[in-house]
Write a structure and sequence with these properties.
- The complex is a heterotetramer, with two copies of chain A and two copies of chain B.
- In chain A, α1 runs parallel beside α6, α7 crosses α11 and α8 packs across α9.
- Chain A has eleven helices and 14 strands.
- Chain A is of the alpha/beta class.
- In chain A, strands 3-2-4-5-7-6-12 form a seven-stranded mixed beta sheet, sandwiched between helices.
- Chain B is α/β, with parallel strands linked by helices.
- Chain B has one domain: Rossmann fold.
- Chain B is globular.
- The chains are: A alpha/beta, B alpha/beta.
- At the A-D interface, α4, α5 and α9 of A face α4, α5 and α9 of D.
- Bound molecules: thiamine diphosphate (TPP) (2 copies) and magnesium ion (2 copies).
Chain lengths: ~350, ~325, ~325, ~350
């Protein structure tokens, strides 16, 4: 497959475009996903393409029926996504920020996630919820959450968080094609990052972690933008005198969890650090530590270390926010602590 | 009256089936045979029946915690419903959902719902599918007077209006949300008036009169099928039993109940059809007998059906998911 | 006109301060000096000003993401606001909240709010406190046209009606929710009509006319203080800048903006007060000069203030909590 | 302090009654917390006292203003609780079932939990949310959740889940008096259980676990009704030939977490089993395992074991639900596995 260098934003746009072209039951809805839904003047059409411009150009290609702006009514349109999924469409619903889940959680966790089970298998809900995560945008406490952990908590949902443009494209295509509800977490901080992305149809199966860097001394499991933080830490350590060789496992799929890949790496290196930007309590980070404690304890040559956000909301001031988000330096320290 | 004979027979049979189903559950619950929360629809039969008389299998409904009547009127199999409520493997949901979650998507029944206000957004979604696929399917969203105060319900009204969806909102105002009357919970003149504020045609009708309901909904259905958007109907009705089985109903007076019982929807229907010679006593009696048999068979079916195997606990959560991830961090128990 | 001279001066000063504050931010944002999401209130000054002219420090308001105007009109310190928006330790929230969360509970300002529809339930709570404590405090709930479609907003309307709370709902209809007009998002005749469906007095007024707003809200405030419950006011207004700073505003026409600018609330107010001899040119000019100085001082204050110490990251999460639990499962970073 | 035997339900009612008498800013609101709010006839008043009868008798003592029925509008009245708390009341808000959090989560996690932080400490939110958890009631997927983990995930909240009538009384009083928002989880299955409860004022500080049974071979950490399951397992093991002595730690407070008590017990016994009825992913159970993996790994003589619900919604049929909830037999097995 030939590749080009495009951004994470473009990769998602491309995947959506391809899936909409391929399957006419795929639709997109959300607030301002075009912009100016009240006006059909060409100048206005597509004024935004979503708050981060990710869905730009789609309305021209697929029209206002399939690329659908909504009122500010998250329960209403999230539930409409669930109902549409149950009756034969394959909706992609944009929730602008994951922190807005509070106003529509029921439709996700009590309806979408449980419907198939409660109905004894008589429904399927091929719904994809696109949402944004990540601090570092100086967007303060209600617009900077990375609370994917609460979705992982709910049986019936799948949860994905890509770190690279290529993964974003491939996993988004897989999420749309998947017959279960998937929460697809786009990191705001990554939208402008670029990387090689295969052209044309490109699908990465859900549920597979990816080793972004091989190493032998310590396993660093990371999620979304923390993969980049982990990679920087790994490079620093490789260059340093101590010459520690770190393996970086990009979880990618948070539910289902690729236990095999994580465990194999832990068993190989004997050491585990988990880097996660989400709140630390009841998190994917504690899940990974639990994997080690329950299934690989005899392989561990030192304590497990977590590098996460503190147990605080995301602060606004850049001075505080930069301290909030895990850094390569903290990862390096944590790795050292596993060696004691 | 321009309702054909078959439809009249169907209406009577449907109302009678619902009543008999609920009365049976009431008895069996008291006897300790039925587990869980069971909300009975007895008294409200005319609403589900009058509404669904206008629908085909391809149309959709969303329902509530008080869903048995909607299920029966939409054609869900009575035996499977009974087995479901008994928690049996042969149930409509293999015993996984119970009374509050009976569904049959193939019959257009998108599920009872344990969340008050859970249905209206879902109904908008079913309406959206019809709109985008260009079919003439309509979706009816049933909900209660209490549910009319839930934000999700009001969002559903607005969204259906904005998108001109083929959705009909049927508010079953039975005078109570658990113990609480709409006099206390609904600000404003009444529920139908509130819906008017969302710019949709809205009427309040006698919910004990199946023919009146049928008529009002017929109009709403053709409006929806024509692509002219949503309609709101408030049906004023009453539930005979407690909020759920086990409720001692101390929040309302006995004579209120008796007054409603004297206007019972089945009695009234019988009166009208006999008076106008639309159906005969023999036809009605035959239905009564038939229904009695159906319910007895349903109970026997439920009783004799097996409980689900514990292996079933893991199935139907996902279409696809790695099986070992279903017991994370531990071995599956024996 | 029965508004006294001091109040007129206050109105002009307040509107002018808001305008100058926002214009300053617009410039500084373009220069890269301001981090984060900043939503400017320029154009809408008459609403916050006309409303808050009726309130005392003991009354409450809830606000939105577009909160600077509400803050200034409710008396939050302008220097502290500026410092907050710059992320400084001297900010109204010690730099922890930023533009979208400025608050000062002592001034009755219960917070800007990053969640559209977040405020109405909170306003009901403040109203409930007043009601239960038997004070005559009122609470004003500001929200936008877009927010009028959020379930939480509609729940707030209903709850305030049912409980007859001393709450005034002020919908700032500026024609857009981000890029989306209420023509598209609000089903029904208009927003004020929808509120009537909740059984409360409801009016739509010219939101560019501070005196008209003052008048309408005065009536609403006395109704609330008398214990006669909530009122709804839709103020029709316009925002001059983009939804947030950085928005290129391609979803509306330039001449629409110019038309509104020709009816600017400050221009209009100056015209009226000069024409009727209520204020003098000298008084107005003095205020302009004064405001200019205040804003310059605020910028200087913000610029020269320190950033918060990283230790501050852990404080103010709880009133009390074990400190070591603030970095669970790990040592606090250096 | 003199004690009597009363039920868990009565204990909560008593704590609320005492706190309302003590502090007139304490109010109660929720759906049907009296019953028949539309009628002032004495026969109707207090017809329910809440769906489980927990608040019966309070309206007679404190009146309809302070014991306040609400419309079905959880965001509305939860937010009203937050707003009232910020302005000088000390509200207790009843959310009938924890699974209903989906329709009002924003007011809890984005408003109540973050407000103090976002305001730089200029507000306090002394709100207590009473809600019910627990399967075993044949109430199916939407009425049987124990999803306290998602609240633990959010900084700014405290979360409590008592297992005994005495703890219910003492912790509920503490929750009401606490100046931060507290989620108080009552287990439906425990409402009728009885035990000795001190009369009069009785307050148990939040944040302290309680050792419900001392032992030396294995630490079993449990929550809410799982404490009873763990105790049964411990008794079985004591009686059995193998004579394993299990220590049962009742977490009681899920946030803040009493790390000391848990870690001291693990260090003493060298083995850890966690019993939790909540969904397993991103849960309090994985938090406890993480405690061991990060801070006590050198004391562990075997792998950590979790005994939780499966990654499924709660099924309705008694045959399935009884298999869903952890049992003493599963706990005994898990303990054996830590000994391998
Ligand atoms: C979100 C939510 N809140 C509360 C409940 C508890 N509950 C179940 S039914 C009910 C009353 C519903 O009243 P109404 O809508 O009038 O329906 P009815 O029971 O009268 O048919 C309540 C409060 C619930 N199931 N879901
Ligand atoms: C729950 C929620 N949904 C969406 C958003 C994103 N958002 C922020 S402001 C806004 C538009 C609000 O429009 P309106 O209420 O009219 O206020 P205005 O910006 O015009 O003042 C949107 C969609 C949000 N902050 N919160
Ligand atoms: Mg009702
Ligand atoms: Mg607006």
């Amino acid at each position: 497959m030939s590749e080009r260098i495009i951004s994470y934003r473009e990769a998602i746009n491309e995947a959506l475009r391809l899936e909409m072209a391929r399957d006419e039951t795929v639709i997109l809805m959300g607030e301002d996903v075009t912009g100016a839904p009240h006006s059909d003047e060409p100048d206005h059409l597509d004024a935004w393409g979503g708050v981060f411009g990710v869905t730009k150009g789609l309305v021209q290609e697929f029209g206002r029926e399939r690329v659908r702006d909504t009122p500010i009514t998250e329960s209403g349109f999230m539930g409409a996504g669930v109902g549409a999924a149950a009756t034969g469409l394959r909706p992609v619903v944009e929730l602008m920020f994951i922190g807005f889940m509070g106003v529509c959680l029921d439709q996700v966790v009590n309806q979408a996630a449980k419907m198939r089970y409660m109905f004894g298998g008589k429904a399927k809900i091929p719904l994809t919820v696109r949402t944004t995560i990540g601090a570092g945008f100086r967007a303060a406490a209600q617009h900077s959450d990375s609370i994917y952990s609460i979705f992982v908590h709910f049986p019936g949902l799948k949860v994905v968080a890509p770190a690279t443009p290529a993964d974003a494209k491939g996993l988004f295509a897989a999420a749309i094609r998947d017959d279960d509800p998937v929460i697809f977490c786009e990191n705001k901080i990554l939208l402008d990052t670029k990387g090689p992305v295969p052209e044309g149809e490109y699908v990465i199966p859900l549920g597979k972690a990816d080793i972004k860097r091989e190493g032998k001394d310590v396993t660093i499991v990371a999620i979304s933008n923390m993969v980049n933080v982990a990679l920087k830490a790994a490079e620093q350590m490789a260059r340093n005198g101590d010459g520690i060789s770190a393996e970086v496992v990009d979880l990618r799929s948070l539910s289902p969890l690729d236990e095999e890949t994580v465990l194999a790496s832990i068993k190989k290196t004997g050491r585990l650090v988990v880097v996660d930007e989400d709140n630390p309590r009841c998190s994917v980070a504690t899940d990974i530590a639990t994997l080690a404690a329950t299934q690989a304890i005899e392989y561990l040559n030192g304590p497990v270390r977590l590098v996460t956000a503190p147990h605080t909301p995301v602060p606004f001031s850049p001075a505080l926010e930069d301290f909030y988000v895990p850094t390569p330096a903290r990862v390096v320290n944590a790795v050292r602590e596993t060696m004691i | 009256m321009d309702i054909n004979h078959d439809k009249l027979l169907w209406m009577y049979k449907t109302m009678r089936s619902i009543r008999a189903f609920e009365d049976q559950l009431h008895t069996d619950f008291a006897a300790g045979k039925i587990p869980g929360f069971v909300h009975l629809y007895a008294g409200e039969e005319a609403v589900a029946t009058g509404v669904c008389a206008n629908l085909t299998d391809r149309d959709y409904i969303t329902s509530t915690h008080r869903g048995h009547g909607h299920c029966i009127a939409k054609g869900v199999d009575i035996k499977e419903m009974m087995a479901e409520i008994h928690g049996k493997a042969t149930g409509a949901c293999k015993g996984k959902g119970g009374s509050m979650h009976i569904a049959d998507v193939n019959k257009g029944m998108l599920g009872a719902n344990g969340i008050v206000g859970g249905g209206p957004p879902l109904a908008c979604g079913a309406g959206l599918t019809a709109k985008l696929k260009g079919t003439d399917q309509v979706t009816v969203c049933f909900f209660g007077d209490g549910a009319s105060n839930q934000g999700t319900t009001m969002e559903g009204l607005n969204l259906a209006g904005v998108w001109k969806l083929p959705v009909i909102f049927v508010c079953e105002n039975n005078g109570y949300a658990e113990t609480t009357s709409p006099q206390y919970s609904v600000s404003g003149q009444d529920i139908a008036a509130r819906a008017r504020g969302f710019g949709m045609p809205s009427v309040a009708i006698d919910g004990l009169d199946v023919l009146a309901i049928h008529e009002a909904v017929r109009e709403a259905v053709s409006r929806a099928r024509r692509g002219d958007g949503p309609t709101f109907i408030e049906a004023q009705t009453y539930r005979y039993y407690g909020h759920f089985e086990g409720d001692t109903v101390k929040y309302r007076d006995k004579d209120e109940e008796e007054q409603y019982r004297s206007r019972d929807c089945l009695l009234r229907f019988r009166g009208v059809v006999l008076e106008h010679g639309l159906l005969t006593q023999a036809e009605l009696d035959a239905i009564d007998a038939d229904v009695k048999k159906t319910i007895a068979e349903a109970v026997a079916f439920a009783d004799s059906s097996p409980l689900p195997d514990t292996k079933e606990i893991l199935t139907d959560v996902y279409v696809s998911f790695p099986e070992k991830e279903m017991w994370p961090f531990q071995a599956a128990p024996a």
